[in-house]
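Q: what does this look like with glutamine bound?
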Amino acid sequence: MIALPAAPARSVRQLRMLARDILKAAGLENAEQEADWLLAHATRFSRGQLLAAGNEPLTARQAEQARTYIDRRAAREPLQYILGTQEFGGLEIAVTPDVLIPRPETTLLVEEAAQAIGAQRRSLVADVGTGSGCIAIAVAKTCPQAMLWATDISWPALVVARRNALQHGVGKQVKFVQADLLGPFAASDEGIFDAIVSNPPYIPEGEMEGLQPEVSRYEPRLALAAGADGMTYYRRLLSAAAVLLKPDGCLIVELGIGQFNPVSALADRTRLSVLHCRKDQAGIERALVLRRLD
Ligand code: GLN
């Protein structure tokens, strides 16, 4: 029997052009670069190999895989969910649609947490709503003497976070627990943490639909939406932190746009006082540091 010839595979060059056109038509600004990242991921070529490959044919499997990735991206699925990773403060963090994709401005929280626990030995830190685990893992790497509890209400998120912690060799330093914020610690004695850090959900419900399609359609709503005024989690976090922080311990929270004033006003009604706030590269007040007073 004569075998039928395999369907002609596209060349690398053709597929690059096709990918660019599809991604441009989908309205992506960075279409050329994204096309190359997706093709490199599909073919397991480095970018250099991809450029050098030119007219070489791809296997049917590579072409099919590439086409799947391109179509997913054209439907505005975040690149990071397709590639499976995001860099965060120099660490490669695995991501799935169960976790928020780490943002560069969130590294400000890591810097502030490291600063707050600084020279202290054996400090105890909580990362509330750990998601991918990025903050807890980065703090653990920066402060090898710190021990961390990382909580999340989402079990699938904790699976990703634990995998990331093991990958970065901090599986013993960071303990993960499924919890609604600081739930399991609420009944504990006062003053157990040297620092509490959190990038909580802070988007007002009414603004969810107006977010980029990558965010509103694909990132976990649970990680983003925070009631009508976006303040739900700050209220609960501040009142829990006022009890669970040691005196002089710090709560470090990420803020959404315009949230410095309302969150500071909340702090005024607790035993926490505003130490300072770091702006991100866009000039937005982003990392708020509060200290327990007594
Ligand atoms: N802590 C994670 C991050 O900063 C997840 C935050 C969240 O899900 N709101 O990326």
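The chain has a mean pLDDT of 94. The beta strands are 85-88, 91-94, 124-128, 147-152, 174-178, 193-198, 245-254, 272-279, 285-292.
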